[in-house]
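Sequence in, structure out.
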Amino acid sequence: MNSINNFMGTDPDTLLMGVVVSVFLLAGLVKGVVGLGLPTLSMGLLAGVMPPAQAAVLLILPSLLTNAWQMWDGAALASLLRRLWPLQLGVVAGTLWAPVSLVTLDAGLASMGLGTALMVYALLGLFAVPLAVPRRGERGSSFITGLLTGAITSATGVFVFPAVPYLQALALRKNELVQALGLSFTVSTVALFLRLVMEGSFAMGQLPGGWSLLLPLPAALLGMAAGQVLRGRVGEKGFKRLFFVGLLLIGVYMVARGAMH
């Protein structure tokens, strides 16, 4: 018992690093399978062991690189850029110029609201309620969806809603949807980083002494690679079911986290 206490007491940073690596390994695995979840899971799980500012600093690089990897991993990027540029433009504008931000909005209420929305959408998908976006007027609806997604990103740090339901309603194939999610999340990550810099909320001094931004990166990349292998073994129908179950679980988690907050 004394040896355990000594271990626990003499090097808490080592234990904290272990928790951080484990969290990003799990979040990367989930992202590799369903194409999303790394920021939501990592921020939520790390909130119990470190201040949100520290978690946000650690999140930026793994989120950016895993999303960029997901964006480039496929043959549809050029066609997705031609089709989805209004969505990305709206995301940037909404994130940078939203009237509310992480600093001003109650995090608990925001988490509960987003989680509820994701749960409703996931249940609609699991029960095969059809959602579709008409091709006519798609650019306008894409831009508005991007604006809303950007505003929610600025306020909560979570960039899954309403972009994820919108992209799924475009009836993209499995790998196209995952690549489109990577594109949208990459743009959202960069836009959120710029918003944090603009507000002075992103500071390297938030990290514990001796830590590096690179600390969680290998775990996130390893987890994502394993998740992609698992995704490759899941058929189209199985993937859609897994996708919606993943969204449902993320929604439940966000509601629970908001209630505890």
